[in-house]
Amino acid sequence: MKTTHAILTLSAFAITALAIVEAGRLQPAAFASPIATGDNGVTVLTASTGQGPDEAPYEALFVLDNRTEMILVYGIESPTDRRLVLRSAASLPSLFRAARGG
User: pLDDT, tens digit, for every residue of 24-67?
Assistant: First the structure.
């Protein structure tokens, strides 16, 4: 039983590693269109920042957390680094209050 469990666990790790490696080989244009998804009160959205080359524009990742009523904006420092960096975080009620002039 332990051998079967170990084989299944190693197979899962190998498949996950392969998926990550293959995802890293995607061309930037393959995922440059806006997309949104959500679950359990969290919505994730990507959108172009208007910067970068036309064929591969830079994108930002927006995370809306309904439970904490926060918006988080992530971006990439440089195209060669490819690390997500938190650019901004704000309270949604505060943003809406400021937009209403209050």
Answer: 655 555 444 556 677 788 888 888 888 878 777 788 888 988 88
CB 34 within 8 Å of CB 47? yes
- Looking at the DSSP bridge assignments, the partners of residue 44 are 37, 63
Residue owning tokens 């910067």: 51
The model's confidence at residue 89, banded by pLDDT at 50, 70 and 90, is very high
**Amino acid residing at 28:** P
Residues with Cβ within 8 Å of 46's Cβ and at least 6 positions away in sequence, in order, are: 31, 34, 35, 36, 59, 60, 61, 62
DSSP-derived secondary structure for 7-54: HHHHHHHHHHHHHHHHHHTS-GGGG-S-EEEEETTEEEEEEE-S-S-T
Query: What pairs with residue 85 in β-bridges?
Result: 75
